[in-house]
Prior knowledge:
Structural class of chain A: alpha+beta
EC number (chain A): 7.1.1.8
Low-confidence stretches of chain A: 1-7
Oligomer: heterodimer
Helix content of chain B: 55-70%
Strand content of chain A: 25-35%
CATH superfamily of the largest domain in chain A: Rieske [2Fe-2S] iron-sulphur domain
Strand order of the largest sheet of chain B: 5-6-7
Function (chain A): Component of the ubiquinol-cytochrome c reductase complex (complex III or cytochrome b-c1 complex), which is a respiratory chain that generates an electrochemical potential coupled to ATP synthesis.
CATH topology of the largest domain in chain A: Rieske Iron-sulfur Protein
Radius of gyration of chain A: 27 Å
Domain Rieske (chain A): 87-174
Bound molecules: FE2/S2 (inorganic) cluster
Transmembrane segments (chain A): 15-36
Number of strands of chain A: 10
Number of domains of chain A: 2
Order of helices and strands of chain A: HHHEEEHHEEEEEEE
Number of strands of chain B: 7
Cofactor (chain A): [2Fe-2S] cluster
CATH architecture of the domain at 459-482 and 529-654 in chain B: Orthogonal Bundle
Amino acid sequence: MTTASSADHPTRRDFLYVATGAVAAVGAAATVWPLVSQMNPDASTVAAGAPIEVDLTPIAEGQDIKVFWRGKPIYISHRTKKQIEEARKVPVSSLPDPQSDEQRVKPGHDQWLVVVGICTHLGCIPIAHEGAYDGFFCPCHGSVYDTSGRIRQGPAPTNLPVPPYTFVSDTKIQIG
Amino acid sequence: MSGPSDFQPTNPALKWIERRLPIMGLMHSSFVAYPTPRNLNYWWTFGAILSFMLGVQILTGVILAMHYTPHADMAFKSVELIVRDVNYGWLLRNIHASGASMFFFAVYIHMFRGLYYGSYKEPREVLWILGVIIYLLMMATGFMGYVLPWGQMSFWGATVITNLFSAVPYFGESIVTLLWGGYAVGNPTLNRFFSLHYLLPFVIAGVVVLHIWALHVAGQNNPAGVEPKTEKDTVPFTPYATMKDMFGVSCFLLFFAWFIFYMPNYLGDAENYIPANPAVTPAHIVPEWYYLPFYAILRSIPNKLAGVIAMFGAILILAFLPWLDSAKTRSSKYRPLAKQFFWMFVVVCIGLGYLGAQPPEGIYVIVGRILTFLYFAYFLILLPLLARIEKPRPVPNSIADDVLAKSGGKAPMVSAVIAVLMAGGLLVGGADSARAAEGGNKPPAQKWSFSGPFGKFDRGAMQRGLKVYKEVCASCHGLSFVAFRNLAEPGGPGYSVAQAQAFASEYKVKDGPNDQGEMFERPGRPADYFPSPFPNEQAARAANGGAFPPDLSLITKARSYGRGFPMFLIDFFTQYQEQGPDYVTALLQGYEDKPPAGFNLPEGSYFNTYFPGHAIKMPKPLNDGQVTYDDGSPATVAQYAKDVTHFLMWAAEPHMEARKQLGLQVFVFLILLTVLLYFTKKKVWANAH
Lengths: 176, 689
Ligand code: FES
């Protein structure tokens, strides 16, 4: 390797080696991109995740239904007066994840609670109308949510998330 | 792998590991300090190229398996969904599919190199036999992989190849049933082939380790065929061989990328874009090009069992080569007769490959028999004979002498041989397309805006074509792999998301069951696929006089016609691959009101100049003025035909523009890398000469 001839142009030689190495490294990095990107949801999965519409008329007061959006269960509860009151009575600052009930429902549609039914602890599905707060109870590790879907007890760190949705009419919502 | 290494890491942590597991020493002695003969030519880089290809195939294969569904009802569709919907799925599939061909191309060069330079001779017999085992495993893996897309060729290839075992006396039928897991090729067969196709590459990798181990024990052969004697005869593997191999791999990648980005279907069979149908055998069952020579041998023997034995014998005979050729001189460079016969043998192999793709009739059978005889005669008669009668020229004293003697350089010779081999490979590869669409006239070649390396779809033509499809074709033909959302995707007909949504909502789509358990109809959404006009194949046949109007999603890729020699060779360089669109356009315009005199047109058929056999069940679908264009294009059959074909070409390959664009970038990059590697390699080797 180290003969007289190579010592003649050390800088030019080094430049060649560095350039080759750099170009090869760029190529290797660019190759990794498609190999990783293919793991993301494919186009048909993304398209299937388009917004869905749900008709609320069949849900009686005190009842709830579960629909699926993007493979996730969404709870839609038609809350009773009592449940709404319970949710609004508690001082927000005393909650583990402070959020008022008003922030979690759409104005003028206070009776409708729409939450993603996935426990924020480790992803089990909480059971509706269970637990000490008449909201949701997660059987996996005992997280308890109230009638606003807020965490009250147990290992889950945050409230049940509210998915993006809008009221198309008084009896119809669009999720997504 | 060549004895204890004196490699000692300086880092204490590495030292700690090295004392307990000397893996760095192993790597160092195998791939860094390992002495490699200094006179190796570029034929020796194919070993590295093959290792690289094995890695590429395993990597892309593992990824494709993440998206593939090994079920007879879903396999074909899942492959299409990979290509259409998975991010870069089209790229991964093209790499894997043409990668198989590249792998075989490289292995054939590697084997011929071993043959020419006597690399199988003492003390490298085991090394060579391990190589033959790898080759056999590759053939099994390649075959099972070809079955997985579950197209017509997959299915019938699987049927024919598994039926080879029925030639075994007494147990034949039971063996075949065992292979199938049923009474015919079906879902269980597909499932086990998938399992084995995933397993075998790792077995290959294991045998490759043994192959390299044996190589490092015996040492590499070299063009002079004399063993290294002194330090002067060798150079350390790194950086010398490493740089040379990297340059070789880079050149090979250029060749490979041509297929991936520009000719992805050149080596494939149009027939395999038709879903497997156990009721219809394609007119010509042709295996992939790399099996063709053996297929020709199989067909040239008129007895079933003997044919199968000859075919397997043609491969197994390679394992006995070290003992069939007992000549002391290794390299054919110094064997004037062996050298000439070697090249004749190469021609025989290419000839067999060509014949394997031709219909087994007439002159082809006779020539096939002659070449089969010559193939075996080379191993069984010629090589043993030459070892006894040939007078070899004196070999050089040492490798260093050999290097000094030929500083004139043999580069032209190498490139000439590469040209010959490439032409041969293409001849065989292109032979697939040499099969004529029997009984149909050749459609005239059209000008398409999407052909060539910079080809793009014409949005206007696609939008008009969609209109023609919707108003005419859709009453009988489905388009089931195309979703409404695709109409708004980049590279498509150029509609906006809102337009695609509006288009979708004009369709009624069956959905359900609802809460009452009933199916219901609702307006289409972008995520829905074009609904098919008939609920199932039986209904379609009943409504169309017994003929099944094929789904049009892939029609432009599933139809082809023979280009003939030498056009298909030229096509490789001009990137001509529009046989499908040419045929579809010609067919739509090819109706004659009256069949020519003497042609017996069956009841309920129509005469079409370009349809194979001329009698087509589809009545003339297009008439002048039938569809109104609002952009002022002529409302003629010729225009309709071209537009709808244009649209269907996109439907068959929605990512074609992305493929060609990325191809350009990759080529710019690869050329730059190859040039840099060339100069780096030259600089590094300047010290060795
Ligand atoms: S997952 Fe719900 S409590 Fe752990």
